[in-house]
Fold each of these.
Amino acid sequence: MRAVGYPLSAVAVLAVVLRWSAGIAYGPLRWGLVGLIALLHVVALWGRRPGPLGPVGDSMTARAVRAGGCLFIAAMTAAFVARMATHGPPDEQASFGVPVFAVFLTSYLVGLLAFTARRTAVPGRAIAIGAAGSLAAAGVWVAGQFLFPPVSANVGGAIFTLGCGVAAVTLALAGRGRPRDALLSALSVGLLGPLLVFASVVLMSRYGPARLIPELVPAALTPADRLANSRIEIQDPYVAMLFLACLGAVVLTVASLITGRAEAGKVAR
């Protein structure tokens, strides 16, 4: 069922995207977005085949983290695609927005697949600690924004908190297994943590109470306009989290591939 179901679901999603994108009048933007979705599907299906990205590890933790991470990236993709289709000049979105987000989203997906692949052989416990450390670091930062509003317009606090998460994961695994497991688990926080922070900022800026939103557009005419514009502007500094997650994904992918090759060599010998 899985062998048939995954390709069929991919085809179904592409069909929905083709139908939805028919309303985009600018052709390069429409086909760029369709190509972005197709690219991510190809990478996801590649992660199911034997190789550096797949199949998924044998532990339930690896399967759960891979499935949850893929759903999270899919939700981010849907949000980015919807925004690029409706905001900004279509020609700029087609020539700049689509390629940039294609690189970002593909790097996130490849990093996640490499980290949870059977070939990388990260134990379920180390994968769980990495995921828990990411959630905890992002949760601590979000709690700080609610306790000491408004949301900071400087990303320094978020980066510091994520750095503490990396350190905590490293200490939790130090001396309790192979150093490579501690390294890969800590690196996974560099991928997942910034994405969780960025998603939290988007949700807080859209649906959070007014006390969470700093006044970033004082020139607006009315308080309502200042609040509405500030809800948009507060997201801009945290785009840096997307760059940080992309860097983390690249480092995690390279480390997973190198250590996975070494691990496969030991098993072969």
Amino acid sequence: MTPEQVWELDRSELLDVRATGRAGTYRLRARDRVGAVRLGRGPGRVRLSIEPKIPVDRLMYLLGYAPSRLQWQDQQVDAVARADLLPAVAHAFNRAARRALRAGPLFGYRETEDTLPVLRGRLRASAQLSRRPGLVVPLEVTYDEHTVDIAENRLLLGAARRLLRVPGMEPRLRAELQGFAAQLDGVNSLVPGAPVPAWQPSRLNQRYQPVLALAALILGGASYEFEDGRNVSVDGLVFRMWQVYEDFLGRALGEALVNLVGGRAEPADRNHHLAVGRRHVLKPDLVHYLPGASGVAGPAIVVDAKYKRGFRREDLYQMLAYCVRLGLDDGHLVYAGGRPGVVRVPVPGKEIRLHRHVLDLSLPQAELSSRVDALAETLARALP
């Protein structure tokens, strides 16, 4: 690589760059992200592709459990035949978008504020009085407009345009994505850095729901965070593997526990704090609630996902804090590799057991799903 390329890769913080002792030759080691991006300009321009360690179809399965998104296992067929992550995501989106737009773009009603010479909809009295006191026209009004420029179409257009900027997209797929963007004429583009538009599943947008799940995934991978907290948009897509694993485990294991023992699963529960005054929020990946003796639901199972092969002492300290604060005798750490075990911690009047479980993400999808169900049964047996 050129010195400029080395500098761009090093400052990106996406991987570790080490010299080999040979001029212009370096050893690269990925950190915790996968995907493809373009970095730099001129002699520093470089295309970086980071492949996941697990098969792409398994990663697509995990991504389908990301929070606030619908599951889209029906898109797995396209992913299985493709070895690269980004083409797999793009082909799945292309297929879902084709289905969604088969009957044309979705229309909906959007509340619009405007200034008009005649009354349409409702008069905004406070705005009229403050902006035009004593004037009859023009009028400050609010009305519901039947339009194609709705949140669902903005998400769809934003995802299509984001994929068009991903490096290495094959020409046929690029042409189809451009066709989808053309179908959404009249839809405003998403503002870079602005929050993604919110939408709610309904009977009216049912045909859009699978592609909206993918669109949220694609738009969520359009930036990454530096170690110092700065966030940068990228010309490509990147996914943080430990976040993908946490999202998957919280949702999939929560669903399995609800089916097995009932109650309520809360992935990424942020309702508990370590200190008085609601200070130092606790961040377990899953808390499962069951009715107690009084009939009131309370924490019964706490789980934390660890995307690593071996455990560290700080993992035990973290889970011990969860157990003490939630009043539980058992805490569960679920690793992506390593060996299972139990650490018994004596505390006044009782013993707290910190369980280490292992979930092999390289297993075929059906077997991985069975292992999640088996893990739920193991956790249920630890209930008092």
Amino acid sequence: MHPITTAWTVGDIAAFLFAVPVTSLAGAVFLALVVAAWRARVEADAAPGAAAAVDDRLRDRYRPQRIVLGILAVAVGVAFVGAYLFRVFVPMESSAVPWLRFTLPLIVAAVGFAVLLVVALRRGDDPSGEPVLGRRRTWATFADRSALVGVALAAILLIATTLIGGAVASLDAEGRSTIVEIPVPNVAGVDPLRVSFYGWAYGAPVLVMLGLVLLVVWSVLHAAAALPFLGPGVVAAERDLRRGVAAGALGILTAVVLLTTADAWRLIARSAQVSSLEIMGVNDGRPYEVAWQHSEFATLAAWGAPVLEICAFTLLLLVVIRSPYPAIASTTPRESERIR
């Protein structure tokens, strides 16, 4: 009996595990639980019992928005994983709308943020208490700067991926920018290999939906800043609640953009898996080597996609975990928020 041997290395096993988004989701669950536990401990030490001091009226005012954020975070994750499982059983090439693969999370996010905007605007009908004078509020008043930077970097990464992918891609038989041609060097009469790629057929709809989602999120942040406070006595607590809503919205937005970029990188990475071409009855059965000048970047995309997915799923899970429990830092308004 001969011993069973395998040529699999640690790198091969890691590549196999991280080739599916489910592995990224499992890693994100662990990371999100660790981050949530650390946050809860820090907030408990900083302001013990602060949340209990907020009256039910203030809680009820922001509860619908937190519920919408939690549902939206779940919906985005389900849409992304569901689209992956759908592609496992239905080849992408047979789909009538292949671009839906990359725009589905963005579409779900746009609809969810539109619902959040409607819910936020309905708060304008609440009876306001004593007028509160203070510094002028803008759409960025309740948004954390680091969160805004994260959204900007994620958007730039997606836009750069789309522009580069569109420039490299070629047209398929139907005239769509969905493939990349990998030539066979030093061999005459052999057509280049054509591999599915993230071209303009996918990238252009992504850019359109990205712009729409950014516009809706801006409207949500603007509405949160423009609506009046209930009164001077709850300015600080209400400020923290609005910051929580803004943080959740920006977290979901960042996650959606990262998931879209990761999905594009996974498609781009397929071109790095092609290294040879074997033609029956030609070259004595020996394969031809194929070369693509951007294969190194495609390989990096293969390893970078799971990293983006883990970050995105972690952000979504944190929104879900935090949605029932708003963070209240204090209940005493700052002097600059009481009167100008």
Amino acid sequence: MLEKIRSDLDKLSGAERRVAEQVLAQPYTVMQSAVSDIAASAGVSQPTVIRFCRSMGFSGLSDFKLKLAGTLVGGVPYVHSSVRPEDPVSEITAKVFDNTVTALLKCRNDVNPQAVDAAVDLLSHARRIEFYGLGNSGIIAADAQHKFFRFGIPTVAYADSHIQIMAATLLTPDDVLVAISSSGRSRELMDAVNAALESGAKVIAITVPGTPLAERATVTLEVDSPEDNETYSPMLSRILHLVLIDILTVGVALKRGPGLATQLEKAKRSLRQKRLRNDNDDE
């Protein structure tokens, strides 16, 4: 519904357009406001608010609000850049939550089960796993390494482009590189990916579809989140990347069977013993 309003802006009169812009800027506030409050905020008369609702194909304000509520409950495709300086905290909170939930649901519906299965299979049989990411994606790579090293597979995470390309040349056909990128177009990361492929290693990409990284990788887990990565720090893609890493972690854990559970329990016992020794030392 909000997309329809946005696309019809040029068809509206000047006064009706001000109402439309008010709805786009603060949909939750409009949904809960009386016609007088909406008119005052938009700087128009109350009849103009009703005319706007009818221009959009609704019988009146009540009908308009009902459809608007359904759109908001279903999830609004906001990007965080749509948060405005004048937004109240309640509006900011709603926008960020709705944006994140919507992105997660879209990713869940779009994810390719065959690609996930292929990635899990590669990781389960890897001699060594390396996670590469630059900037914000480097943090995701570190999180992935922290999860996967517990499986007894040699793992490492690199966030420096010079180290990445040097390490990639040392990989073998039994190794797997997981390349994480919110843009899929980083030249430095692509250099490392190309070096890994030339060494015979397999590459799993977690990135935007249709990008150089997505097309070059052995297996691609596509993450299509509408973000302005040039201006804003990636938020949605960061969360989606973390969820995909969790999916791969669970998949590999199940693939490796009951022996992994024994190994993890052994690691937990070691940690408990270490805590007990530290407590005794403190006493």
